[in-house]
Amino acid sequence: MTTTQIRTEHVQQSRLATVDFNDLPFGKIFSDHMFVSDYRDGEWTDDRIVPFGHLTMHPASMVLHYGQAIFEGMKASKHEDGTPLLLRPEEHAKRLNHSARRMMMAEYPEDRFVEAITQLVALDKDWIPPAAGSALYLRPYMYATDEFIGVRPSQTYRFCIFTAPVGPYYAKPVRLKVEQHYIRAVPGGTGEAKAAGNYAGSLRAVHEANEQGFDQVLWMGGPDMKEIQEVGTMNVFFVIDGEVVTPETDGAILKGITRKMFIQILKDKGIPVSERVITIDEVVRASEAGTLQEIFGAGTAAVVSHVSELQYGDQLLRVPPVEERKIGPMLKQHIDGLRVGRVADTHGWLVRV
Ligand SMILES: Cc1ncc(COP(=O)(O)O)c(C=O)c1O
């Protein structure tokens, strides 16, 4: 155990009374405290929980120039008995460090990551909104802080976690454009890291898709841009003739924690599921044969995001209406149920705070 003492400085006056839990815009309201730790001389020091506030930055901070910045996204919920719950925090700790290794950044000890999240959520537990589907969104992130101009890994970093109450995510079914020009990631690139630059690099494609009337893009890869990767910032699942298929991870696809749980839940229920290459041609053929039953995105924020239509060049593929779908809604209900203790935690995924 490498846990060190976390120093805590409490806010003088909580802002909680000023927040309307029935009207929570996503990502704009932040709770009272945040966690901060600094890496210098080869170790993480001064772990602290302090009042939420601005961070100062040197103009030559390396993150601003060479982009060493990574993050995680997770949620704390409340059990029906009132206990705060975390879902697989250790998986997020591991993925942060996977991202850190790829971006030549310092790794943060995984047990300290879970401890920091636990203490922060315990302190701001009243910020977890009570309504079904609501949560306290947690944002761990790390960035390079060397005050230096020149391309090399920074030798100092800051690791922070802040939290934000979010309401239920009513994702309406989305219309997708099969992206044939822009590329999110390739094997050997940085797609498997939650690196900030990946998201900046995706914005132009999504903007152009929006201008053309689509909600999101379906990212493609492979030698002829036919292999399906992800949908927007979610992993993608297809149900074709009773089989659930998701692209196998190949170094370009982010290894989603929701994706991993979905595969396990499907296996537990005896529903056929495979991780393999899936091409757009296979999806077109399934659509023509009437065997394309569902397409949905999987991720922490919305859990499941149903896809209603897919535009591939001049071909429009329609997916059956959400009311006729079984797999996506079942998976969402399962995760939402786990988060409030209504579904049995058979794999020990929940951590009580
Ligand atoms: C690019 C990308 N793919 C997939 C996901 C889904 O991952 P998770 O289920 O861990 O939230 C995310 C969100 O973290 C993402 O940013």
Question: How does this structure look, described?
Answer:
With 353 residues, the chain is an alpha+beta fold. The chain folds into two domains: 7-168, D-amino Acid Aminotransferase, Chain A, domain 1, CATH 3.30.470.10; 174-338, D-amino Acid Aminotransferase, Chain A, domain 2 (Alpha-Beta Barrel). It is 24% helix and 30% strand. The protein contains seven helices and 18 strands. Strands 1, 2, 3, 4, 5, 6, 7, 8 and 18 form a nine-stranded mixed β-sheet that branches. A six-stranded mixed β-barrel has the order 9-10-11-12-15-16, surrounded by four helices. A hairpin with a 2-residue loop joins strand 12 and strand 13 (243-246). Helix 2 (89-102) crosses helix 3 (110-123). The protein is globular, with a radius of gyration of 21 Å. Pyridoxal-5'-phosphate binds next to strand 12 and helix 5. Residues 73, 230, 233-235, 254, 256-259, 299-300 line the site of pyridoxal-5'-phosphate (PLP). GO terms for molecular function: branched-chain-amino-acid transaminase activity. This is Branched-chain-amino-acid aminotransferase. Keywords: Amino-acid biosynthesis, Aminotransferase, Branched-chain amino acid biosynthesis, Pyridoxal phosphate, Transferase. Its EC number is 2.6.1.42. It catalyses: L-valine + 2-oxoglutarate = 3-methyl-2-oxobutanoate + L-glutamate; L-isoleucine + 2-oxoglutarate = (S)-3-methyl-2-oxopentanoate + L-glutamate; L-leucine + 2-oxoglutarate = 4-methyl-2-oxopentanoate + L-glutamate.
